[in-house]
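Researcher: Structure prediction, please.
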Amino acid sequence: MGVRSFFRRTASYFLQGLLFITPIGVTVFVIVWFVNLLDDLFQPLLDGLLPYHIPGFGLLFAFFWLAVLGFLIAHLVSRSAIGWFDALMKRAPLIKVIYFAVKDLITVFFGKEDKMGKPVKVLVQRDPMQYKFGFVTRHDLKDFKLGEEFVSVYFPYSYGVMGNQMAVRKEDVEYLDLSSAEVMKFIVSGGVVQKSDKEPSKPSK
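Model: Predicted structure follows.
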């Protein structure tokens, strides 16, 4: 084995090791960072309850109180009150963009509501053929002086909470036999997330 071949093979092994350990390291780092963040956030409240510090207890503490909050909202807060708060958020020019983007993303990811519209794939280029995945958000665009052959489609960004809205021809739109949650996860993950067999798909239009 020559020196060049040796270094080439060693570099290949190095890359394989790097590809294996980097996702694990980043995942562990993010989890530890998040747990420490919650521990530091709730530590002043826990000092009076616990005689010593327990790593990760802040995460359990946050999970418990979020569950309590969800229970109270589900049983004590009416939908009209939630609607009133959402209407209040819509009046804030900058806050509403962040608030509703995050809310819709979380809502779709956990399958609580089907708010994103019907998932579709849209032909955006014919030669070579290219498609983008998105959600039909409106079928009638007469207010915008567009004919019945157009629909409004929202295209989320990968690895983000925002996206683009476009008016496209209906002939370029194909409805997918998938749930909004599945398609949103696929888009936001950059196409990495695979379809879950346990999650039922929704019929196309």
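Model: The longest strand covers residues 129-138.
Researcher: Thanks, that helps.
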